[in-house]
Design brief:
- The protein is mainly β and 950 residues long.
- It folds into ten domains: 206 residues, Jelly Rolls (Sandwich); 64 residues, no CATH class; 79 residues, Immunoglobulins (Immunoglobulin-like, Sandwich), CATH 2.60.40; 77 residues, Immunoglobulins (Immunoglobulin-like); 59 residues, no CATH class; 68 residues, Immunoglobulin-like (Sandwich); 59 residues, no CATH class; 84 residues, Immunoglobulins (Immunoglobulin-like, Sandwich); and more.
- It is 3% helix and 46% strand.
- It has one helix and 77 strands.
- The strands form 23 sheets. A six-stranded antiparallel β-sheet has the order 2-1-5-11-7-8, with no helix packed on it. A six-stranded antiparallel β-sheet has the order 3-4-12-6-10-9, with no helix packed on it.
- It is found in: Membrane.
- This is PKD domain-containing protein.
- It is a multi-pass membrane protein.
- Pfam families: CHU_C, PKD, PKD_4.
- Keywords: Membrane, Repeat, Signal, Transmembrane, Transmembrane helix.
Length: 950
């Protein structure tokens, strides 16, 4: 991501370079033509006064009549450099002082109206680098009312050759006066102003000659109206710019700016064209046309389409121990110049210099990237490894040593970047140089020597380290005089000439020991400096008697053993308290027993015998066993190698004992020693299974209780299978099981002892369960009333043989199958009727239903009424008593056409025979009463007729 950001920054840098800096780069062929130097260098300024023609109407003289020799040079205010952006104050904000792409211009003239005239001229030799002249101009010309064109404020631009002749045809001249028709003038408060315009002139015909550019402004000749202009100019080679990077799928060709129209060989009319899939070597041309108020002119430019190839490259130099690296950019491009470079030094730093000098913080190997850009934006990248050299640090440690002793130096040289190094060692004693990393060296004489190490790293950088070493002389070691002695007699060796001594053959200096061999004994003495020297002496044995202890002996534990020595000795002595020729019982173990035989010179001979006493095997017949009756078992001895059993048993072979018995095994070890052990195998007592039910047959569902009366060996796991799919593991004396369905069920009991002996028994049809009857009935009707208190009870029960009815009204029970019962209606209440059904096995079921008591509805409506003004029967008022919810009541009266003439929700309000206060005619009227009973949410409706009589 860092590299990508750097590249984006470089692209931005390139764009700035190509818009601003690149513009200034175009100017060396016409320096300061664009006033980029901030003054009028290379320009010549003139001022003068306007002269009106003698006859403005008939004399077509050149309007800008000014005397170039009246005032020579630029005049502040009339020749002005402008570099601050803004808008001209006389154009209503419409004219930008600086045109697009320019950063500085010259204002020729001012806003004073004194019949003034100003001029700026620029001369330059024409070359191939400035053959295209581009000039920009904008004018602010106050309008002179009723002025002729020759007396108006004016701007005139003329391109002349060295003789003063106007060149370039219509492209070499531009002459305009204020508010001239057809010139794109804008107006603002009596001022005409001309927006920025660009014109271009092909000077290729004048290469090698000098031309002059002339800008002239003037006020009106009558001195009342001002005129001034903004101008700038640039030049560049007259050629097409090809932007075609190697590897791109498109190429862009751009013509010089400033022309009025463009016509390419492929028919395009834009200043720039894009060529897809370009073919290298193809030729493209463009006809460029410039329009002025004097006419038009054109030029044709050709360009071959060749890709731009950027080849980045660089070299660098760096010395040992210096962290700064000088980079030299050797990048090339086949056309145009490389205008930008981006360096990434591999240590998170960058540069845009062409040949940077970079200082690294530490030596090492860095991937240095160079990205080179040319003017058209083509780029390429090179990455090289740059080694920043370090100086190694040579160093070593070496201890002082002794003469003739090899000493190894320890090389501690380092390199900051862990480069491989080579070494040169001079040990200071005239011997050849050594080149290994950690050499070993021996000095032949004592003294002080200087060791020099030169370390060279892979970059060829070197460092030297010098250290001294002291070489000590060897001590004068003496072993002593030679000795002669009997074999096996102690002796003491004492060296001298040093401070510590080491003898071969296991002897310790100054400590008595028994030599086992004769011959040379060598001592090594070490002095205070750690230097060692050697000396020796001879030890000679006198002849010793020949002694034999006999062959090695192996016996079993508790066996007697006798040892007797033989040979040329006169007496024999055994160690371990053994008496020659006497038997004894040794303990278990292995013994090396030494026999000494002495001769007349008291020299003795030695011999040894090995006594091995093997232990008896720790035979184990195994633990006593208890097994199930009829089961098999295996007896296997342990602690020995082979086993023999009595009673016909074979070791580790299965057998089935018929009764309890004791078995003996004899075990023999690998060395032939024997021992015995015994084991008892017993037969376990069986279980006698016995169960009993707690009660007889029952109705479903039935929870059966069963007693376990089994005897014998106690069970540790008793499994019950109840015959209905239910099982239970329990060692309790009593178990229960819920039988939910009718039927007779087998019960199986399986008991297991702690030993694993299993005993099982099944009891067929041990538990029987009978079905329950189903009690059911209906009441007809299910709702009774005071008026109709009787109901038929219909028995729908199944599986029963006896029935008991309880009517819930305090009357006697009934055993009828389908009783009809008249309920006691005082007081009014609902009745819970219960039916109990009983099967032939005494199984019972019951059901209870509620018989509803509906309160009586008494509603009376008269069939006529006489609203004739007397006190008898003046209104139609139905009589409503108990059983009606008076909050849910409605009375409505209809005439013969079905129209409603009266409606009320009040049970105490009647109809007086009127409709909206007008008496209705005699005749028959229909009525409808809608109400809800007080005992339920049921709505009822009652219809009838009434006669209205008067």
């Amino acid at each position: 991501m860092i590299v990508k950001k750097n590249l984006v920054g470089l692209m931005l840098f390139s764009l700035i370079l190509m818009t601003g800096a690149a513009y200034s780069q175009m100017q060396p062929a016409c320096p300061n033509a664009n006033f980029s130097q901030g003054g009028f260098n290379n320009w010549t300024g003139y001022t003068g006064s306007m002269i009106s023609p003698a006859n403005e109407a008939t004399t077509p003289v050149i309007p800008a009549v000014w005397d170039p020799f009246q005032v020579n040079g630029t005049v502040m205010g009339r020749h002005t450099i402008v570099s601050t952006p803004g808008t001209d104050p006389y154009t209503c904000g419409g004219l930008s002082i600086l045109p697009p792409g320019s950063f500085v211009v010259a204002r020729l003239g001012d806003a004073n109206s004194n019949s003034m005239a100003e001029a700026l001229t620029y001369s330059m030799p024409v070359t191939i680098d400035n053959a295209l002249l581009i000039y920009k101009y904008a004018a602010v010309l106050e309008i002179g009312p009723s002025h002729t064109e020759y007396t108006q404020p004016r701007l005139k631009i003329t391109i002349r050759d060295v003789a003063g002749n106007q060149i370039g045809g219509p492209c070499g001249v531009y002459d305009v006066y204020s508010d001239q028709p057809g010139q794109n003038f804008q107006t603002c408060n009596g001022v005409s102003w001309l927006p920025w315009s660009t014109a271009a002139l092909d000077l290729s015909a004048f290469i090698g000659q000098t031309i002059q550019v002339e800008f002239v402004t003037q006020d009106c000749s009558q001195g009342a109206h001002f005129g001034y202009a903004y101008v700038t100019m640039s030049c560049q080679p007259l050629k097409l710019t090809v932007e075609y990077c190697m590897g791109n799928n498109n190429a862009t060709i751009t013509a010089p700016t400033g022309f009025s129209s463009y016509l390419w060989s492929n028919g395009a009319t834009t200043p720039s064209i894009t060529i897809p899939n370009p073919a290298p070597g193809s030729i493209y041309s463009c006809e460029l046309t410039t329009l002025t108020n004097a006419g038009s002119c054109s030029v044709i430019i050709e360009a071959p389409l060749e890709p731009t190839i950027v080849e980045p490259n660089y070299t660098y130099t760096q010395n040992c121990g210096q962290l700064n690296v000088q980079f030299t950019n050797t990048s090339t491009v086949n056309n145009n110049a490389i205008v930008a470079n981006l360096w990434n030094f591999g240590d998170n730093t960058t540069s845009t210099q062409t040949n940077p000098n970079h200082t690294y913080t530490t030596p090492g190997v860095y991937d240095v990237r160079l990205v080179s850009y040319e003017t058209a934006g083509c780029r390429d990248t090179i990455i090289q490894q740059v080694t920043v050299k370090s100086i190694p640090t040579a160093d070593f440690t070496v201890p002082n040593t002794c003469m003739l002793s090899p000493v190894t130096v320890v090389n501690t040289s380092t390199d900051l970047i862990n480069q491989s190094m080579t070494y040169s060692w001079d040990f200071g004693d005239g011997t050849p140089l050594e080149t290994s990393a950690n050499p070993t060296h021996s000095y032949q004489t004592a003294g002080t020597y200087t060791i020099t190490l030169v370390a060279t790293n892979a970059d060829g950088c070197t460092h030297t380290r010098v250290r001294n070493i002291t070489v000590y002389d060897l001590p004068p070691v003496e072993a002593g005089v030679d000795q002669q002695l009997c074999p096996y007699v102690p002796m003491t060796l004492n060296g001298s000439g040093a401070i510590s001594y080491t003898w071969d053959n296991g002897a310790v200096n100054g400590t008595p020991f028994i030599p086992t061999v004769d011959g040379k004994y060598i001592v090594t003495g070490t002095d205070a400096n750690g230097c060692m020297n050697k000396d020796s002496l001879m030890v000679t044995f006198l002849p010793a008697p020949v002694v034999s202890a006999g062959p090695d002996v192996t016996v079993c534990e508790n066996t007697p053993v006798t040892f007797t020595g033989t040979g040329t000795a006169t007496t024999y002595t055994w160690d371990n308290g053994i008496t020659d020729g006497q038997a004894y019982v040794p303990n278990v173990g292995t013994y090396t027993i030494v026999l000494h035989g002495y001769d007349a010179s008291n020299c003795f001979g030695l011999d040894t015998v090995i006594l091995t006493v093997n232990t008896l095997p720790n035979v184990n017949a195994g633990p006593d066993q208890i097994i199930c009756e009829g089961a098999s078992t295996v007896l296997a001895g342990s602690g020995a190698s082979t086993y023999v059993w009595d009673n016909g048993i074979t070791d580790n072979v299965s057998f089935s004992p018929a009764s309890t018995l004791t078995y003996t095994v004899t075990g023999t070890s690998a060395v032939g020693c024997e021992n015995t052990d015994e084991v008892v195998v017993a037969i376990e007592e069986p279980i006698a299974i016995a169960i009993a039910p707690a009660s007889g047959p029952a109705c479903e569902p039935f929870t059966a209780m069963i007693f376990n009366n089994s005897t014998g060996t106690p069970s540790v796991n008793t499994q019950w299978s109840f015959g209905d799919g239910n099982t239970l593991s329990s060692i309790n004396d009593t178990v229960t099981n819920l039988y939910e369905n009718q039927g007779c069920y087998d019960v199986t009991v399986t008991s297991t002892t702690a030993l694993g002996c299993v005993w099982s028994q099944t009891y067929p049809s041990f538990i029987c369960v009978y079905p329950n009857p189903h009690a059911a009935f209906t009441a007809n009707p299910g709702v009774i009333s005071v008026i109709s208190p009787e109901s038929d009870l219909v028995n729908l029960s199944t599986g029963a043989t006896q029935y008991i009815w309880n009517f819930g009204d305090g009357t006697e029970i009934s055993n009828d199958f389908n009783p009809t019962h008249t309920f006691v209606v005082e007081p009014e209440q609902n009745f819970a009727v219960t039916l109990v059904a009983i099967s032939e096995h005494g199984c019972v079921d019951s059901i209870t239903k509620v018989i509803l008591m509906e309160k009586g509805v008494i509603l009376y409506a008269p069939n006529s009424f006489t609203p004739d003004g007397n006190q008898f029967n003046p209104v139609f008022l139905p009589i409503v008593t108990s059983g009606v919810d008076k909050n849910q009541y409605e009375l409505e009266i209809f005439n013969r056409w079905g129209e409603s003439v009266f409606k009320t929700n009040d049970t105490l309000e009647g109809w007086d025979g009127t409709y909206k206060g007008i008496a209705c005619k005699e005749g028959m009227y229909s009525w409808k009463i809608t109400y809800k009973t007080s005992s339920s949410d049921e709505k009822r409706e009652q219809l009838g007729h009434v006669n209205l009589l008067r």
